[in-house]
Amino acid sequence: MSTDWDVAVVGAGTAGLVAAQVAAERGLRVVAYERLSPGGQLVNLTTLHDHPGGTGPELMSALTAAAEEAGVRIAYAEVTRVHPGGPARLETGDGEVTAGAVVVAAGLSAGRLGLPGEEALVGRGISTCAGCDGPLFRGRAVAVVGDDEWTAEEALELAGFAAAVTVLVPGEPRWSAARAARLAADGRVDVVTGAAVTALRGEGVLSGVVVRTADGERELAVAGVFPFVDRRGPEGLVAGLAADAEGRLVPGDGVLVAGDARAGAEQSLAAAEADGRAAGEAAVAALAATAGSLRIVDPTHGVLPEGDAGPVEATDSTATWADVALFTNSKPNATELLRGLGERLQAHWELPELGFAAKESASVAADPDQIDWLSQRFKMVLVAVGD
Amino acid sequence: MELERRGVVAPLVVTETFLPLVQAQAQARRVQPRLLVVPHPVGGLTGTELAGRIEGAAAELLRMADEARGQS
């Protein structure tokens, strides 16, 4: 069977990176597809309580480096559909590819409350990343909505910034006794069970929520809400594959599923690592069973394609050193920071003006048209990427 | 990072917290970006605090920019 890849991994979070590394270490040609950047939810955690890996970004960096060292190719494209079979076919943003085995480790979607006006308030009070946005709420009241380990961990992280953190649990908490104890010990955290958020308050910026409990409805004044409910698995990604009520996939039809995307998965870093390892081993075993005892090794495996070996010079740019721009990710204060730095450079080089471009959101990839425009029009671009 | 691959001088402004993430991305994309690292966080800072971030990073930006222009 001739395929583009031995193993294609969908999602480069913890489970996906570990699965990819395990398969690559066995000499397989492995690609891991990631829509934006490796790391999955790890990049949102500034402290890891159940793992010796330091911060989330540090562990993610180590996992990515280990996968790359093993020979995994990380491809920055979204996989929109997987067709199981021999070989499996994957529809991606870069075209269609084939693989002998597929591991789906696409994680879960961001939490949402499902309320009118919610999307307009994302980034304006509604967030799903305490590590990124927690400092915005320093000294103010916030709410966290959910019932799982992730909810508890985010609430604890927010308690380091906010004046008060109300955890609104739709039913009863599902988090561990250890996390329950940590929540109880934090004087800034209040856990309310049997609570549903029924409405959002605020014009342009969130100012509060309406909470319904057994005692009736009440207004809760908060500057931020962090929803970790209604997180969905990648239901529909794999043709013909069943999903549970939360959209998490049931492995089958030759498709392996690892991490939070798998039905029944435990939400923990250790479980995601173990799941990824098991999926990687299963992919190796499945391919070995298909190939028999003889395996022909691609002698170019691990050698970077020529196009990846270095910079690609722009050929149609006429920009000079007078052409300088700022490119912001639109996170709070990122534009102001860039403008301040840009003004210094403008004065230093006596530039008449600075160009400007903005991504709609830090959580989406840059628009290719924007990249084309910036690379053709400007010699230098100051970019805000991680803040 | 794609801008640097296309020959544009593109310093990336990143906070210390996100530095490992950006470095991993750079490694995966086979580029060595110019990094301007500032203390975390940036969001939520007052005007005075933000001015401090700008003050702290400006000298390195100007050095980086002069060096890039001098090499061209």
From TrEMBL, chain A:
SUPFAM superfamilies listed in its UniProt record: FAD/NAD(P)-binding domain (SSF51905)
InterPro entries in alphabetical order: FAD/NAD-bd_sf (IPR036188), FAD/NAD-binding_dom (IPR023753), Ferredoxin-NADP_redctase_2 (IPR050097), UGSC-like_dom (IPR057767)
Keywords in alphabetical order: Flavoprotein, Oxidoreductase
Identification of the protein by name: Thioredoxin reductase (NADPH)
PANTHER family in alphabetical order: THIOREDOXIN REDUCTASE 1-RELATED-RELATED
Catalytic activity: [thioredoxin]-dithiol + NADP(+) = [thioredoxin]-disulfide + NADPH + H(+)
Segments passing through the bilayer: none
Span of domain FAD/NAD(P)-binding: 6-247
TrEMBL record, chain B:
Family annotation (InterPro entries): UGSC-like_dom (IPR057767)
Ranges where the UGSC-like domain occurs: 2-64
Pfam families hit by this protein: UGSC (PF24696)
Protein name: UGSC-like domain-containing protein
Organism of provenance: Geodermatophilus africanus
